[in-house]
Design a protein that fits this description.
homodimer; 341 residues; alpha/beta; Rossmann fold; 6-stranded mixed β-sheet; 13 helices; 12 strands; 16% strand; DNA-binding
Amino acid sequence: MSNLTLEDIAKRCGVSRSTVSRVINNHPNVSDKVRKRVQKEIKNTGFRPHAAARALVSQRSWTVGLVLPRSVNSFFTDPYYPRLIQGIAQGCNQLKYTLGLYLITDSEDEEEIFPRLSRSGSLDGILFQSDQIGDQLIDRLAQSGIPLVIIGRPFHNDNISYIDIDNISAAIMAVNHLVSLGYQRIGTITGPLNTTVGIDRKNGYRQALQEHGFSVDEDLVVEGDFTEDKGYAGMLKILPAQPDAVFVASDQMAIGAIRALREKGLRVPEDVAIIGFDDLPLSNSADLHLTTVHQPVYQFGVKAVEFLNDLIITGTTPPRHIIMGTELVVRESCGAHIQQL
Amino acid sequence: MSNLTLEDIAKRCGVSRSTVSRVINNHPNVSDKVRKRVQKEIKNTGFRPHAAARALVSQRSWTVGLVLPRSVNSFFTDPYYPRLIQGIAQGCNQLKYTLGLYLITDSEDEEEIFPRLSRSGSLDGILFQSDQIGDQLIDRLAQSGIPLVIIGRPFHNDNISYIDIDNISAAIMAVNHLVSLGYQRIGTITGPLNTTVGIDRKNGYRQALQEHGFSVDEDLVVEGDFTEDKGYAGMLKILPAQPDAVFVASDQMAIGAIRALREKGLRVPEDVAIIGFDDLPLSNSADLHLTTVHQPVYQFGVKAVEFLNDLIITGTTPPRHIIMGTELVVRESCGAHIQQL
DNA sequence: GTGAAAGCGCTAACAG
DNA sequence: CTGTTAGCGCTTTCAC
């Protein structure tokens, strides 16, 4: 329908196409009278400037890419990603970017995606979910010079911009809380240990324990992958070691862990206290008042886009790191309310 | 990095830019010798044609948009959407489209998005999640002539292309199965009744009952919204009417419903049989062997993109409708295995 | 089989 | 304040 061009609008208004362009881009140098006339015509005709033409001449596509590697297998199982994507979408809306979504699915060679991402003119910048497998792709992208923000701390390459939460401190905070409540045998169900988030939270756990003079009992440490099933299985596996409290690296896993506990006839927090991580809406549902580390997922997404926009405008060097804070949300599953009686 | 142009490659190879263009686009009229030389140079330099320039001249952006209205509040709660998006992403990869994601978030006026979608040159076509609120946006989009496929049956406008599953037949199939197992008081927890999918599944339920000569007891019908919480609340609400079986319009709600049942000390399926809808991975987890209607969410997404691609190539008229099949997956929650003893 | 030339629709100097 | 002009990088006739 809208196959009008700048030229068409210009003719109808009896001005040149530059003037119309100026009106569209809010340049000051247009008389009010002409501006009004042109604006009216634009509105009446429903004219929209051609995106590709604009992108070509201005070398800005106003599109940013979000890359989610296939190893993010909790994508359709964990509410974390949808929430993150909502935040990112919101950030894009605010800054007038279009969001291009690049899910690397099983069948696609990760190699294949590089040309699509680096093709000049299609993306102003890239948001890339940190991931071990994708790390060499990240390096290539960084070298290509395209503005790039890694979501989460990347593996090898600290010489690159990223946004993350302080997972180590957050885990320490959680475990400290457990210690302060008097628990003696504190276990953990970790995230996947081929991700920095998994590693960092685990390290925080160890660090907190050590600071309090506890030794780390490896039987109390089980690797998970953020899925509920692994939370369930992890708790089953950890139970023989007789924990009195467990720091579970995601709420989704905590739900599985609590399910395992209940099936064994164990009560939360009386028999085993639980602290989760994420604080997504599900964490405080009817039968589950999970004490958890709140991370600002949505705001994190918004911020990531703002950060990327910064790099697009001001350049990618030197690399910068944004670390967002977390906070402990104390509800019932850690047993704090019992202690206060 | 890759600020090379066709012209640069041409020079290095001692040919014209037309020839390089031909090589890139696999035109036949290039001698093997030259083709090889150019291909090698492209590979060596890592040259990528400029997307915007290409889009401008060919009037194809190779991008399709996916629009998710804000009323889809189960977006970050129900695994359905992530799975659908995976399918769509896969379809896009196959057909070499980039996927543009348009989440309409609370704060954004739905009006505001129309210009972004209809801006010429940015999108080759649009996938739009059916939704009551968005329906007028759908009409405007359709009128603008852009290739458009609605995901799910739209509300008022049958004069538009859409892809859906046969929700009515699927619900009938589910309820028939319950009837054939001898249940007498079959209830339903519906989807949101401001969506066609919610309405259709409810109508299928009624229809099946009526075909078998059952009257529809309104106390056995409760409106839900696809979230687990509403499944939980819905079951609590329906319980006084003493159902012996309940058709729950989504697995996510079924999980909540079963939770409610268990809390009341009721067994599934002995006391109340349950059939869900979706058959996402969660439906067959450790403690939950849900009988459910399988819908091919992932393939549905792939198919939607293929359909859209068809419209892009062959034109949007006349509108076509694709209806994908579903099947009943009998597991334990409906009690069929007990009957067989 | 290959090159020259035109032009997609727009922005941004540069004149005036 | 406004118009003219020159491309942005590519595809595609049209000659040869």
